[in-house]
Structure formats: C-alpha cells, structure tokens
Specification:
By secondary structure, this protein is an alpha+beta fold. 58% of the residues lie in helices and 8% in strands. The chain folds into two domains: 5-94 and 218-225, Glutaredoxin (3-Layer(aba) Sandwich); 97-215, Glutathione S-transferase Yfyf (Class Pi), Chain A, domain 2. Helix 1 (14-25) crosses helix 8. The chain is globular, with a radius of gyration of 18 Å. InterPro entries: Glutathione-S-Trfase_C-like (IPR010987), Glutathione-S-Trfase_C_sf (IPR036282), Glutathione_S-Trfase (IPR040079), Glutathione_S-Trfase_N (IPR004045), GST_C (IPR004046), Thioredoxin-like_sf (IPR036249). Keywords: Transferase. Belongs to the GST superfamily. This is Glutathione S-transferase.
C-alpha cells in the first residue's frame, strides 16, 4: 500500500474536516490513499501543534497541514490554500472553475469564509466555552453578542446568495456545481451547535447544510474522523 497523502488534523476541528471531505470527494480513501495524524494543542514534541516535529511541517503551529507524496512530498498548510491546491492539481474544472472568472468567483467565496465567517464563529465558541477556564472570569456578554451578530450577518449574506442561486436553478453557493466554496463553508456551518447559533431565520442556509451533510463524501469523511 502506498500512502498518497498525510493529513495533520484535530478531531473536532472544522478546518481539517474541509480537507478530509475534499479528499473523499476526489476519490481518495482513508487508510488506503491517505492517513490522519491527530494532534492536540500542547507543546508535546511529537503530538502537539506547538511541538518541535509539527512546527517543521507548519511553522505557524496550526492544523490542517497536508503532505502530497505524489508531488515530491509537497507540504502545504492553511485550509484555503490546501483546498485550492487540491482543486488545481486534481480536478480544476469541477471544483474551482472552468475559466478565470469562475475560478476567481469560487476563490472569493472561499476567502470570505476563511476571513469573515470561520474566525467569528470560532470566537463565539471560545468565549462561551473556554474563556472562563482560561481566565477565571465570565466572558463579557457584549463580546459574545458582537461575534454572534457577525456570524448572523454572514448567514444573511449566504442566505441571499443561495436564494439567487436557487432562482437560477442551482443548488450550490456558486456556479451550477459543488465547489471548494461549498466545502469551505460547510466545514464550519455543520458545527454551529457548538457555538449555540441557529439557522432559524436562514432557511435556505439550513436546507443547504442538510444537503451537504447527505453527500457520500461528507459521510465518509465523518466516519474516517471518528475512526481515527
């Protein structure tokens, strides 16, 4: 058996799940084509994201990171960069775009998720569930509201986009097909329960998330994450 990819991950991490999902979508199989190295947030030299070994893989000490052994053992980190790399190398027309305009449309939505959605949802989770353990103090309600409001602002943007797409007969965030824009948003929106957020006012977003969850690649990725 020849392993094609190695993925450094964290089991509950939305960003690593994006990469698992895309590897499965591309037809690569867990433990057949790729393996997962799950890390923790410690400085353990071998098992921690801030450990000596992993910082040679990713100097920023964050997951995910990927090694492509089919491309001279190329190492790439940051979820958006990994998604674009895999799409460009293995199936650009399908998952990125058939021409420059389509590609840049896809990339702008990926960038929007990475910069404008994921960080705010992550802050909601942090202040609700980790702040008190870290500081011994209750999280300021105004801070939580600020990040929650930004999450809902992004949900509203996505809701309008999905309505526009539906009017064109399309079921995805951009174009007429599943792309890395869907994969990028889905990685975080599938886990809003952790942030105690709701899609109550965003029915098209809720429907889209449910459809993404039913994709075979998503289900295989979820199984591989639990198995590891």
């Amino acid at each position: 058996m020849t392993i094609k990819f190695e993925l450094w991950s964290y089991p509950q991490g939305p960003n690593p799940f994006k990469i698992l999902n895309f590897l499965e979508e591309l037809g690569f199989a867990y433990r057949g084509d790729y393996i997962i190295h799950n890390l923790d947030f410690s400085q353990h030299p071998l098992k921690g994201v801030k450990g000596e070994f992993f910082e040679r893989v990713n100097p920023n000490g964050r997951v995910p990171a990927l090694v492509d052994h089919m491309n001279d053992h190329f190492i790439i980190w940051e979820s958006g960069a990994i998604l674009q790399y895999l799409a460009r190398r293995y199936a650009p027309d399908q998952y990125l775009g058939k021409n420059l305009n389509e590609q840049m449309t896809t990339v702008q939505w990926v960038d929007f998720q990475i910069s404008g959605q994921g960080p705010f949802q992550g802050q909601v989770v942090y202040f609700k569930h980790f702040w008190k353990n870290a500081t011994g103090e209750d999280a300021p309600p105004s801070v939580i509201r600020r990040y929650e409001n930004e999450c809902y602002r992004v949900f509203a943007v996505l809701e309008k986009q999905l309505i526009r797409q539906k009017e064109k007969g399309n079921n995805f965030i951009v174009h007429d097909r599943y792309t890395i824009a869907d994969i990028s948003f889905h990685g975080w929106l599938r886990s809003i329960a952790k942030a105690e957020l709701s899609f109550k006012d965003y029915p098209h977003v809720a429907d889209w998330v449910n459809r993404m969850e039913k994709r075979p690649s998503t289900q295989r990725a979820a199984i591989s994450l639990v198995a590891e």
